[in-house]
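Its record is set out here:
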Amino acid sequence: MNEEFLHYIWKHALFDRSALRTTEGKAIEVVHAGTHNHDAGPAFFNAKLRIDDTLWAGNVEGHINS
């Protein structure tokens, strides 16, 4: 798997969005995946995620290896 494929999966929500949880078990809702960035920098701009009752907004970066 490469990062381009990972970006494709995120952009098109090709994963079980109902099962997303933090390592502490809090529910995660993807409100908006963000705008795909094809240049240098984060993979997606202006994403919105709700973790429990808090709405988080910002950029998303994903990597195959941490």
Summary: The first strand starts at residue 28 and ends at 32. The chain is about 15% helix and 35% strand. Helices lie at 3-11. The radius of gyration is 12 Å.
